[in-house]
TrEMBL record:
Residues 52-64 have a biased composition (Basic and acidic residues). The keyword Phosphoprotein does not apply. SMART domains: HLH. PROSITE patterns: BHLH (PS50888). Residues 37-64 are annotated as: Disordered. This is Max dimerization protein 3. GO terms for cellular component: nucleus. Residues 41-51 have a biased composition (Basic residues). The keyword DNA-binding applies. GO terms for molecular function: DNA-binding transcription factor activity, RNA polymerase II-specific; protein dimerization activity; RNA polymerase II cis-regulatory region sequence-specific DNA binding.
Length: 119
């Protein structure tokens, strides 16, 4: 799978996660939480880590986060070019883009299956 296909796959997974979370919030009236680890959670104490300069850790984290957001922004822009968006009154949010992309892929898959059945 090439890089753009992999990125699109990750974005589609994110859209599905957001939809599941929205359904859970609608059903229960509150946000869903991650599943509890149960007794598998290790209570063993690890060796204390040497103290690092918190300022340098924060700087590295901020830089990594900046690169991650830039990569995500590039992937979303590429997805916008590949997915036909409607020009109706709905705002073109990231969630709407991901939902349209998922539907677009489903339609294309169904159409390709139909074409294959004809031959």
């Amino acid at each position: 799978m090439d890089n753009s296909a992999c990125n699109i796959h990750v974005l589609l997974q994110a859209a599905e996660y957001l939809e599941r979370r929205e359904r859970a919030e609608a059903e229960h009236g509150y946000a869903s939480v991650l599943p509890f680890q149960g007794r598998n959670f290790s209570h063993k104490r690890s060796k204390p880590k040497p103290k690092k300069n918190p300022e340098s850790i924060r700087t590295v984290h901020n830089e990594l986060e900046k690169h991650r957001r830039a990569q995500l922004r590039r992937c979303l822009e590429q997805l916008k070019k590949q997915v036909p968006l409607t020009s109706d009154s709905m705002r073109n949010t990231t969630l709407n883009l991901l939902q349209h992309a998922r539907l677009h892929i489903k339609v294309r898959n169904v159409n390709s299956i139909d074409v294959n059945l004809l031959y």
